[in-house]
Amino acid sequence: MRAVDIIAHKRDGGILSREEIAWLINGHVAGEIPDYQMAAWAMAVFFNGMNAEETAALTEVMLRSGAAMDLSGIPGPFVDKHSTGGVGDKTSLIIAPIIASLGIKDPMMSGRALGHTGGTLDKLDAIPGYRTNLSAREFRRILAKDGFAMTGQTRDIAPADRLLYALRDVTATVESIPLITASILSKKAAEGAEALVMDVKYGSGAFMKRKSDAEALARSLVHTGVLMGKRIVALLTDMDEPLGNMVGNFLEVEESFVCLEGGGPGDLMEVSLELAARMSALGGKAETIDEGRALCEKALAGGKPRQLFLDNIESQGGDVRKFLSMIGKYRSEYSAEIRAARSGFIARIDALKTGRAGVQLGVGRNRAEDPVSPVAGVQFHKKSGGAVKAGDLVMTVYAKDEPALGAALPQLEEAVEYGDEAPDARKLIWQ
Fold it and tell me: I need a surface site. Which of 45, 97, 283, 385 has the fewest CB within 10 A?
């Protein structure tokens, strides 16, 4: 085979065989096919797409390009969820201990913030001592003990995805649905999950801005997952506004813990419980979604998820006592308040503008090597639908330093939209 022939075949709208895809991907991982040819192939895929069989073949080849977690000997079932990313989305921290409390194992391999979207690993790093760079042996031990474990992708897990994603990021091919599908599912299959719930977000703060694009990605994920032998479902969830009342690394951990104690804002709890209910059904603990939701609510009321969350902190090297003492107190000294510019109602808080301001504050990063601040973020005191009088407190803002605070405040003020009447309630979940 020749790479140029495979590129030309896809450029002309052809369908690639599994053998052609495997030869190309494995050759790139081995360093035999240069970046410029892979970039040309990615652009051909971007314009001409892939059918379901091609996408499944690409996903399996990327999965098999490296190591996978060996969960043999650990009683299952193994169920995980994946979110396509957003602002204030901390549902993983809430769902994992809930699911574990029902007897389902959640092997969770997560990522870091890049751009305006948050990263689960950065949130967990805000807990004193918490380790997310687990070895395979540690991952197995903690998963068996606590029912869930949180780790990052190692260089050995699906290396083809790591290499291809780096090219997509600099060649304007990130939005390709087949390439997104293969990237997500190759990592999720490598972590050992037997069943998956996909949270595909749409709206200003999401990767997919339009609902129709999110629907297309959801269909691709489900079809490909089924072809790979996975039990898989996908939900579309709204990310036009930040999820919950906190955006920031420690702030979101704190809010997740509040949710596990039975509190938490309504939008965050609604999305978390819907995803957890789906996971409980896929894990065989509930026959219907309603039954699964009832099980999750009962578990929360009983307090076991909260305790499992604390157990996991200890298992992954964190200091539980110090964590508990930081709740409500661990904040940056560089802070400011944003107050209502006029009387009326909060019509909308734009998620994308909030997320971009978060990068300025130190919550996220523009480059993979940029540091993040555990104490930067935003606490909302009012969300969409809330009545305000001019001068009412809308949000408290925390920054990594004084210049960052000054840069972010105008963006956050612009993110708040006002109206004379209460806006219609947003539909958070589409099934």
Answer: 385
Please report, for the chain, the start and end positions of each structural domain, with discontinuous segments joined by +.
Answer: 3-49, 79-323, 334-419
Q: In angstroms, how far is CA 31 from the centroid of its own chain?
A: 30
Give the count of beta carbons closer than 10 Å to the beta carbon of residue 61: 22
CATH topology of domain 3-49: 1.20.970
Amino acid in the structure at residue 336: A
Q: What is the CATH number of domain 79-323?
A: 3.40.1030.10
Tens digit of each residue's pLDDT, the chain (431 residues):
999 999 999 999 999 999 999 999 999 999 999 999 999 999 999 999 999 999 999 999 999 998 888 898 999 899 999 999 899 999 999 999 999 999 999 999 888 877 788 889 999 999 999 999 999 899 999 999 999 999 987 778 888 988 998 888 788 888 899 999 999 999 888 888 899 999 999 999 998 999 999 999 999 999 999 999 999 999 999 999 999 999 999 999 999 999 999 899 999 999 999 999 999 999 999 999 999 999 999 999 999 999 999 999 999 999 999 999 999 999 999 999 999 999 999 999 999 999 999 999 999 887 777 889 999 999 999 999 999 999 999 999 999 999 999 999 999 999 999 999 999 988 999 87
Q: Between β-strands 79-83 and 195-202, what pairing exists: parallel, antiparallel or unpaired?
A: parallel
Alpha-carbon distance of 26 to 33, in angstroms, equals 9
Q: Among all residues, which ones are annotated catalytic?
A: 82, 161, 168, 183, 187
Listing from the earlier edge strand, what are the strands of the sheet with 416-419?
387-388, 344-349, 416-419
pTM of the model: 0.92
Torsion sign (Cα): 249, 80, 278, 210: positive
**Residues whose CB falls within 8 Å of the CB of residue 364, separated by 6 or more in sequence, listed in order:** 113, 114, 115, 116, 117, 118, 119, 122, 355, 358, 372
| Top-level class of domain 334-419 | alpha beta
